[in-house]
TrEMBL record:
Pfam families: HATPase_c (PF02518), HisKA (PF00512)
Superkingdom: Bacteria
Ranges that cross the membrane: 12-34, 127-150
Record-level Gene Ontology MF annotations: phosphorelay sensor kinase activity
Taxonomic lineage: Bacteria, Pseudomonadati, Bacteroidota, Sphingobacteriia, Sphingobacteriales
Record's catalysed reaction(s): ATP + protein L-histidine = ADP + protein N-phospho-L-histidine
GO cellular component: plasma membrane
Domain Histidine kinase: 217-420
EC number, as in UniProt: 2.7.13.3
Protein name stated in the entry: histidine kinase
Keywords: Kinase, Membrane, Phosphoprotein, Transferase, Transmembrane, Transmembrane helix
EC primary class: transferase
Source organism (scientific name): Mucilaginibacter segetis
Length: 423
């Protein structure tokens, strides 16, 4: 749920709670005020009855009370406090029961105590309370609707600068020299956020360029002494005084230097791929690239008597030919070097997948670490970066690569993106 949704939810819950609580309090306050008004009117009615008796010297009759009801009953009680209470009364005229507010007490007339009860109808007041309650509920509903609509549109407009900044961050490319530009904003928090993001992007770009320069310089400086050592070895190996053991040592040095050179180049290539520094994409037919790679490895496959089966379809992609060649080279090299004598190699290219399967070790590789750096098989002479490069190239082009082991064959499966009319 978005932040605006959380805010709307909390705002509506709080508003509804406050309004309901207020409505309940409002209802009881109105009832209390109405009851006090009834009691005041009844007290005034009692005073009028006493005044009537003192003036007329007889008890009031039924016709003296309009809509009010009054009864006077002789009683032997000597003392009783006057009190107010709610009661019901059957209205003979309208033939229905109605709620009333009543007062009961003692009065004295002609040396005789009378118990009087006077009641007034609450119907008009209750009707008024119902009308007020309905109006209050309608206003509450209208207020909630207005609150929801206002929050929805005001918040959407308020958060536009945030989404603008978020989109800028999503499109941020550390290798791009241009600086992040943000819209001017009157909200302090958004201005502070934009300033922090801009400063962070500058620091990230600076660190990236420093790391890039260091990597390229380190790679170049490492290649120079390796080239010097190789040249010296070329001179040394021509010395006829060297015996077989010395030649063996020199060959070992050659192999180590060659491995160091390849390792250096692979690490530099990984840095370039991870930081999107290779931008030479073009449209080409992947089938042709696969056929070329099969021809390049033909001699090596024949030396191990590997049976090759191919099912290749035309598949045009947009990518770097240089990176595609490295990807295919590492997959073919891995499939051939780790294959058995008289082994099998299956190569499949369809519109949606590229699959290379080979026989080899009967033990499957660990799916969790097969693409890790410097992970090498038994007796491997490689750098341990071949499959890591393959994984990085696939991630760069958003290809999904997986490993599986089925029917004693190791398989690497690359899911190609959906072909478009441009590809």
């Amino acid at each position: 749920m978005k932040l605006a949704g959380h805010y709307n939810k909390a705002s509506i819950i709080v508003s509804v709670s406050v309004l309901i609580t207020g409505a309940i309090i409002y209802f009881f306050v109105i009832n209390y005020i109405a009851r006090r008004q009834f009691d005041s009117d009844l007290s005034e009615e009692v005073s009028e009855v006493l005044a009537y008796i003192n003036y007329r010297h007889h008890l009031p009759t039924r016709t003296d009370f309009d809509e009010d009801e009054a009864t006077f009953v002789k009683t032997g009680l000597k003392k009783m406090d006057t009190y107010f209470f709610d009661t019901v009364y059957y209205n003979t005229k309208q033939k229905r029961i109605e709620d009333r507010r009543a007062v009961k007490g003692l009065l004295r007339y002609n040396n005789q105590n009378y118990l009087f009860t006077i009641s007034v109808s609450k119907e008009s007041t209750e009707y008024l309370i119902q009308i007020i309650t309905l109006i209050t509920l309608a206003l509450m509903t209208l207020l909630l609707i207005i609150l929801f609509i206002t929050n929805r549109y005001i918040l959407n407009d308020l958060w536009k600068p945030f989404y603008y900044t978020l989109n800028k961050i999503k499109l941020f490319n550390i290798s791009d020299d241009s600086e992040l530009q943000f819209q001017t904003n009157k909200v302090d928090e958004f201005r502070e956020m934009n300033s922090a993001v801009a400063e962070m992007s500058i620091r990230a770009k600076t660190d990236f360029h420093n790391l890039k320069s260091f990597t390229e310089n380190a790679s170049h400086e490492m290649l120079t002494p390796l080239a010097v050592i190789t040249a010296k070895l070329d001179t040394l190996i021509q010395d006829e005084r060297l015996n077989a053991e010395q030649l063996t040592h020199i060959n070992d040095i050659y192999a180590s230097i060659n491995k160091s050179t390849r390792l250096n180049q692979s690490l530099l290539l990984l840095v370039k791929i991870d930081n999107s520094l290779i931008k030479d994409d073009e449209v080409f037919n992947l089938q042709e690239a696969v056929n070329e790679k099969i021809q390049q490895f033909q001699e090596l496959m024949q030396s191990k008597n590997i049976s090759v089966t191919t099912h290749l379809q035309d598949r045009v992609i947009t990518a770097s030919k240089y990176l595609t060649d490295i990807l295919l080279n590492n997959l073919f090299s891995n499939a051939v070097r780790h294959n058995n004598i008289n082994g099998q190699l299956h190569i499949i290219l369809s519109s949606s997948q590229f699959i290379i399967k080979n026989t080899g070790d009967i033990t499957p590789l660990d799916n969790n670490s097969v693409f890790d750096r410097f992970l090498k098989g038994k007796n491997s002479q490689g750098t341990g970066l071949g499959l890591t490069l393959v994984k990085s190239i696939c991630l760069y082009y958003k290809f999904n690569i997986t490993y599986s082991f089925k029917n004693s064959m190791h398989a690497f499966i690359i899911d190609l993106p959906v072909a478009t009319t441009n590809n």
